[in-house]
Design goal:
Layout lengths: L2 H40 L9 E7 L12 H14 L3 E6 L3 H14 L5 E7 L2 E4 L2 E4 L12 H4 L1 E2 H8 L5 E7 L5 H7 L5 E2 L13 E5 L17 H9 L7 H15 L7 E4 L21 E4 L2 E4 L11 H15 L2 H10 L6 H17 L6 H7 L3 H4 L4 H15 L4 H7 L3 H13 L13 H13 L10 H23 L25 H44 L1
Parallel strand pairs: 1-2, 1-3, 3-7, 7-9
Antiparallel strand pairs: 4-5, 4-8, 5-6, 9-10, 11-12
């Protein structure tokens, strides 16, 4: 074999090797793409989490007995915690009797189809015999019979929760020192301190927790703080991967120690298995036995490791740290979208209010997008105007406000201002009824509807930011209404032009029957006149003759 032929053979082998390698690479790419597709199909889609619904009530502003310091604050904190845990929360504060029954009805409607229901109540409660009652702020109890009409029986709430198979949790921080008990105890021997135990063994899947032992009194806690029971509950309720029974065990231990062994929370449960308030979601690994049939063999699908588990509180901290490092409006807005009621929400709003107007004002209108892109802040390019930003911040601040009898009292609204707000509600499409110097049931209902549309807590009572929001929302329509009312009212009189006299009976005299009757009438009037004249002449003659005869007789 010559040197040339050897070179040709070597080149042929090199070419063949290259073709084989290219073919192998192509097969590998195809296998990889098929593998990705199969992994996507094999990995189970994350199922939508089961619906969980909560009812939260906090009653502080009682009218017949002294105000309680902490229930509204306790309920607000629990509501925020449950929202972070993914619950749909129906909440109400300082509720009257009709409002309490209404919110229980709303909760019962939302429970339909839910897999878990939670009720938290903070305020006054009372036990009579084997029945427990939750007391609205407008209650005035003079006899045991008043409880049936002026308080909410706990059994009413339990019946709504037990209509379907689900996990039900009832938490009552309602064993505080109760003046209502003192008022009724003199008239009824069955009235007792605290609440009475509730049996859970007649139904499965329910847990009932009291702030203290039955027939005992719980502490209300420090002013401007939370009750000992609610403080411990807030500490443990968001702990990941812990069952509710373990949560309540930890709460009991904390309260027992923190109150100097004066208060011991009580629970009674018939939940089968474990129910976790904060379950962490894990992705299942792909079954390694699944294989893909490739052209030249079987390619095994690699196992996908489960991600590191982070509970929501840890995610809150991590995201805040990221936003703080970036220190841009976009980062803080992203944090607030993910955690609107997070641990650092107030700080994020303050920094956003401080940073955003400066960032917007510093960008010329024509070059805002380009400047933002150069700065690497894509979020800044999408920033709204400072006016829109201010409105968004005001809306967020308004949503965090909770209207109550106290907040409305602090507004010191005059009768004229109350009528003004009612008129603004009407102009905004709500129905407060006839304008009144006070807010009655129809006005409260309209306020609650308006609060719901604005994403605020629907309490039926105004708070300062809510009044500002209503006025801003209705201002154009309100000014138009004032302008209409200010227009002078012109009254016009219609003067009739004198008309030509019309011949009497022209329209009717065309009828032959009517024409004949009219002719008879005219003829009768003429003959009557002639008869009258003849009678007058005849009377004169006869009178003269008789006068002459009589006169002659008297002369004789």
């Amino acid at each position: 074999m010559t040197f040339a032929s050897l070179g040709l053979a070597f080149r042929a082998r090199i070419t063949a090797a290259r073709a084989t390698a290219a073919r192998a690479c192509a097969l590998g790419a195809v296998a990889a793409m098929v593998g990705v597709a199969v992994m996507a199909s094999v990995l189970p889609a994350q199922a939508a989490p089961d619906r969980r619904v909560a009812l939260v009530i906090g009653n502080s502003a009682y009218t017949a007995v002294p105000r309680l310091a902490n229930p509204q604050r306790d309920a607000t904190a629990i509501s925020a915690s449950l929202k972070r845990l993914g619950f749909e929360v129906v909440e109400g504060y300082d509720l009257k009797m009709d409002e309490m029954t209404g919110i229980v009805r709303e909760f019962a409607q939302k429970l339909d189809g839910a897999k878990a229901g939670v009720v938290y109540y903070a305020g006054h409660g009372i036990a009579v015999g084997d029945e427990n009652y939750l007391i609205p702020v407008d209650a005035s109890l003079k006899s045991e019979a008043d409880l049936d009409f002026r308080a909410v029986n706990v059994q009413l709430i339990l019946r709504q929760m037990q209509r379907d198979e689900r996990v039900n949790i009832l938490i009552l921080d309602a064993c505080r020192d109760n003046p209502f008990t003192t008022q009724l105890a003199a008239k009824s021997r069955s009235v007792a301190r605290g609440l009475t135990a509730i049996d859970t063994q007649t139904a499965s899947g329910i847990l009932i927790a009291f702030a203290t032992d039955p027939r005992s009194t719980a502490l209300d806690g420090e002013k401007d703080g939370n009750s000992p029971f609610t403080s411990a509950l807030l500490k443990h309720i968001e702990t990941p991967e812990v069952s509710i029974t373990t949560v309540m065990d930890r709460v009991r231990a904390d309260v027992w120690e923190n109150t100097g062994k004066k208060q011991k929370p009580w629970t009674n449960s018939s939940i089968i298995g474990e129910f976790k308030m904060n379950p962490t979601l894990k992705l299942a690994a792909v079954d390694p036995s699944v294989t893909i049939k490739a052209i030249d063999g079987a390619v095994p699908v690699p196992t996908t490791p489960a991600p590191v588990n982070l509970d929501r509180a840890q995610m809150d901290v991590r995201m805040w740290e990221t936003a703080e490092r970036g220190n841009s409006p976009g980062d803080y807005k992203a944090y607030l979208e993910a955690f609107p009621t997070g641990q650092f929400a107030a700080f994020a709003k303050n920094r956003l209010a401080r940073l955003e107007p400066v960032a917007v004002a510093a960008l010329p209108a024509a070059t805002a997008g380009a400047a933002a892109a150069v700065a690497g802040g894509a979020a800044i390019a999408a920033l709204p105007s400072s006016r829109e930003t201010g409105k968004a911040i005001a809306d967020e601040a308004m949503k965090t406000e909770i209207g109550s009898a106290e907040t409305e009292k602090e507004l010191k609204l005059s009768a004229a201002e109350r009528r003004e707000l009612q008129k603004r509600l009407t102009l905004s499409g709500f129905k407060p009824g006839k304008l009144s110097a006070n807010f009655g049931p129809s006005q409260r209902a309209a306020i609650k509807e308006w609060q719901t549309t604005r994403g605020a807590a629907s309490t039926g009572f105004f708070a300062p930011m809510q009044v500002k929001a209503l006025r801003a929302q209705s201002e154009p329509a309100y000014q138009r209404a004032l302008a209409e009312e200010a227009k002078p009212v012109t009254r016009t009189r219609t003067v009739r032009e004198p008309s030509e006299p019309r011949a009497r009976g022209v329209a009717y005299e065309r009828d032959p029957v009517i024409r004949r009757d009219l002719a008879r009438e005219r003829a009768g009037q003429g003959s009557g006149a002639g008869s009258a004249a003849g009678a007058a002449v005849f009377g004169g003659v006869v009178g003269g003759v008789l006068g002459g005869v009589l006169g002659g007789r008297f002369r004789r």
